[in-house]
Amino acid sequence: MTKEFDFDKSINQPPVLENYNLFTSDLPLQTAVEANGGFLGNNERAAHFGEILGRGETLELGNLANKNLPVLKTHDRFGNRLDAVEFHPSYHELMRVSIENETHSLAWTSENAGKYAARSALAFIKQQVDEGTSCPLTMTFAVVPSLKIEPEIVREWLPKVLSKEYDARFLPASEKRGATFGMAMTEPQGGSDVRANTTFAERLNDAGEYKITGRKWFCSAPMSDAFLVLAQTEKGLSCFLMPRFKPDGTKNTLYFQRLKDKLGNKSNASAEVEFHASYAQIIGEEGRGVANIMEMVRHTRLDCAVGSAATLRRAVAESIHFCQYRKAFGKLLIEQPLMKNLLVDLALESEAATALGFRLARGFDESETSESAKLFTRAATAIGKFWNCKRAVFAVGEALEVLGGNGYVEDSVLPRLYRDIPVNSVWEGSGNVQCLDVLRSMQKEPKSIEAVFGELDAAKGLNEFFDKFLLNLKDEFSNLENLEFRARIIVEKCALALQAKVLLKTAPGFVSEAFCLARLSENKNLNFGTLPVGVETAKIIERSMVKN
Predict the structure, then answer these.
(1) 506 with 32: CB under 8 angstroms?
(2) Among the listed residues 325, 299, 270, 436, the one whose alpha carbon sits nearest the alpha carbon of residue 13
(3) Is the pLDDT of residue 41 over 70?
(4) How many CA atoms are closer than 13 Å to the CA of 506, on its beta-carbon side?
């Protein structure tokens, strides 16, 4: 008798994780938003956006935008310079729905307390669909403080920046319903050492207009309507606004040479660009370019920390979902003790990153009225960006491995998340730059480090591992020998202490106690999935599951 094979029978594979609300299904995110002042009414806004983003067709837009990459058109068919970037319709649809829901602008348009936390919630759930489109949204959000330095510029540009209408047409901004911003800081010879820049600006008149000549190694979001650019003047490195079109409506002389072939962040274009006496307007005083662009940089660093936590959340959600359905060795993966250990450890990492990211967002809110909050946020943003971005690379790799071979194929979305996640660590200063910024804060603004310890001291007495760790951290700062050589050790410990403090104050005890035991105790281990016996695994996994 020939044995028959049932090709229609279930083959032990999970359903696709889709058609869920990215906000209401995420309990740690809701906790973080509430704990950091997300204003009344924002949950309804975030829930509406989360429902749109979690639809199967919206998640597919993220896949399509990364499979159909942007294309640079340097010339039109008659040989005229065009320097335009063409995108797949999926990219434009993601930009449209994100701008319509104020992902780029809520922190500036709302008059409520907690507006940064509220806006970060929108950015957090948007990031999970597509990293690439989050880049121009972040820069359009982050450019506002730098624009405000120059009253005439802010009057002209701010209404377009804050518009809820996405307008992708290649036209002068004055003819458009909304505008987006990019930036061009680094050059081939210097990278993060922007003071080594050789691009120069020459004054055209006394009205703040210049012409800029030189080239940039990375121009982020080259399809934008305008860019913040650093260039040398007689008084030193200065900050400029460079529009795609001149005031007379003719195309500005930005010549894009090529698009970068990047590891990830594929749906977003990044370009090499040459400026051939390109028109620009100065922002602030000559010679204060770094100071004047740093507010934009700090705000993008906030999004790097929040964005890394968001991508990690998507990866952890996918891995837990897979294990809820996949059977091996006689039972579901989620019931297997070793897998349970790994999933809980990843869930702890995800919640800690989320909690820290939103604590930073609250710092930006409070900095508007509090000098101590401003000092804390300056140091803590560099600390949070360093650690959230760094750990997410490791953790997303582990989440991919949970799915085994299924996780290694493109259909699972994990490979895309894994390629995307390092950009947040590299963008706006890599790990070493963040650590050096913390040391610079110690030397130039010692009160910023005092503010960090003031934050940490608020959790003393809540956990014995935290108390011992905090004493050790203070010893690290009191030892002034070889500070730069030890910078990563110091910043890592600061980040772990900040994550623990926030969890001790805001998360359930079973989460904060497990985190302190796993990350702060002397018996901690380096790998994920190495939690000691006694951690409340069932509660932690349940808290991190996607809940419709």
Answers:
(1) yes
(2) 325
(3) no
(4) 24
Other C-beta atoms within 10 Å of 157: how many?
A: 22
Residue in 412, 401, 301, 422 with CA at minimum distance from that of residue 360: 301
- Report the distance separating Cα 60 and Cα 66, nearest Å: 10
Rounded-to-integer distance, Cα 285 and Cα 406, Å:
55
What tokens appear for 432 in the block?
């070493």
If DSSP codes are grouped into helix, strand and coil, which group holds residue 450?
helix
Q: Which domains does the chain have, with CATH numbers?
A: 27-161 (no CATH), 173-288 (2.40.110.20), 291-544 (1.20.140.10)
pLDDT tens digit string along 51-76? 999 999 999 999 999 999 999 999 99
**CA 232, 236, 241: angle at the middle one, nearest 5?**
50
Is-contact 469 496, C-beta < 8 A? yes
**Residue 508 DSSP symbol:** -
Q: Do 282 and 272 touch, CB atoms closer than 8 A?
A: no
**What are the tokens at 339?**
């897998």
Single-letter amino acid code for the residue at 352: A
CA distance 320 to 172: 47
SS3 breakdown of the chain: % helix, strand, coil, rounded to 5?
Answer: 55, 15, 30
Question: In the predicted model, what is the mean pLDDT of residues 383-400?
Answer: 97
Quote the pLDDT of residue 42.
79
Query: Is 90 exceeded by the pLDDT of residue 49?
Result: yes
Percent of the chain with pLDDT over 70: 99
Which string of b and e fits 107-122 if b means at least 16 CB within 10 Å? bbebeebbbbbbbbbb
